[in-house]
Amino acid sequence: MTILHIDSSISGANSVSRQLSADTVAKLSAARPDATILYRDLAATPINHYVMTDKPGNDSAESAFSATILEEFLSADTIVIGAPLYNFTVSSQLKAWIDRIVISGTTFKMGAEGSVGLAGGRRVIVLLSRGGVYQAGTPWAPFEHAETWLRAIFGFIGIEPELIVAEGTAYGPDARAGAIAGATAAIADLPALAA
């Protein structure tokens, strides 16, 4: 059993998504002390933006690095991602990581009927934090492009992600505490890792 833990917030110790992703990994691994945990902090050690020569299998250091990122993802049974909303979408750090795991012929393929996801069988849990309130029916809902994009991109490679959202965290200490408490309760309700 391998858990891949990804953080992408630039907020350091003040980050809501980092707190929630750590809580999620702690909850899941408590029930599976045999689990191997791999950790990648995309803010502390940023990944370069992806270019075509970085594709695994090419003869370059960046290609070899891409292969390492892809292998970490493919070897994981569960992936836990801390994802803050920045400027209405995911951080560029997280986008750079995702660009290295969405690889034609490995995590998806194109066929006569369209795209087919090849990365199914993995569990992806995303802890999404938002300073504002973007849920359906609010004035800011049309500006939300992180949750929707994450569902689409993981769905494209064959995974239906589980998303836990803490929003309104910028509306003062009480709103922040309430958002964290709601997300923490949802984390407590997550199903345990499969045996």
UniProtKB/TrEMBL annotation:
Enzyme class: oxidoreductase
InterPro entries the UniProt entry points to: Flavodoxin_fold, Flavoprotein-like_sf, FMN-dep_NADH:Q_OxRdtase_AzoR1, NADH:quinone_OxRdtase_FMN_depd
Nuclease as UniProt keyword: no
Record field: catalytic activity: 2 a quinone + NADH + H(+) = 2 a 1,4-benzosemiquinone + NAD(+); N,N-dimethyl-1,4-phenylenediamine + anthranilate + 2 NAD(+) = 2-(4-dimethylaminophenyl)diazenylbenzoate + 2 NADH + 2 H(+)
SUPFAM superfamilies the UniProt entry points to: Flavoproteins
Sequence positions that bind FMN: S9, S15, V16, S17, S129, R130, G131, G132
Cofactor remark from the record: Binds 1 FMN per subunit.
UniProt key word Flavoprotein: yes
Entry cofactors: FMN
Keyword terms: Flavoprotein, FMN, NAD, Oxidoreductase
EC number: 1.6.5.-, 1.7.1.17
Residue ranges constituting the Flavodoxin-like fold domain according to the UniProt record: 1-188
Subunit note: Homodimer.
Protein role: Quinone reductase that provides resistance to thiol-specific stress caused by electrophilic quinones. Also exhibits azoreductase activity. Catalyzes the reductive cleavage of the azo bond in aromatic azo compounds to the corresponding amines.
Family of the protein in this entry: Belongs to the azoreductase type 1 family.
Protein name: FMN dependent NADH:quinone oxidoreductase
